[in-house]
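Z., the sequence and structure:
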Amino acid sequence: MKQTEYDISLAVQALRTLVFEAHNYQDCDKFVWKPTQFWLDQFVEENPREIVCLHERLQPDDPSCHVYMIVSQKKIVYLGTIISKEKAEANFFRLVNNFPSKARQLRQHGPMAILKCWMMCSIPAGTNKLTQETVQTGVQKYLKEFAPRLAGLPINWLSIEQQNAISWKILHEAATTAIEQTKEERIDVFLGEL
């Protein structure tokens, strides 16, 4: 059986920008959020009847999981990171306490809101344990906010083997192509966001 080739370049760029390199919000917007939204909008215009997604392997004690969607031209885009309710609440209070310039905006939306920042797009799950069902609910929550015409469409998931192989390839390529930064450079970027 022939395996379909997917274009993982956008997913690699997203993970490299958010996880392996330090970037300010403007860079994240340029390299992650705007390209993702562009390809979601392109996909909407195709009037799909279903959505195909994949995610990292769910680990029993891991409170987070990156999730991706296959859009036009077999491109894979990073939608966000599904996080447990407990992790969402902890992140919320950490951000409110450490980033006073953003505290008011954060309080308006609360800890269970989707939050795009310089380290991830957090999609809070309604529970503390991540399962296939909570990941699927998180994808629908994201689509309802950022691609409403796709919300409610059935989600098909690649096979577990495909999901593991592709998510590992994305992670590996992002890690090996990331620009090395010193600890001081990373701290300077984050302090610039205060």
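The chain has a mean pLDDT of 88. Strands lie at 51-55, 64-70, 76-83, 115-116, 121-124, 155-157.

Let me know what you think.
H.
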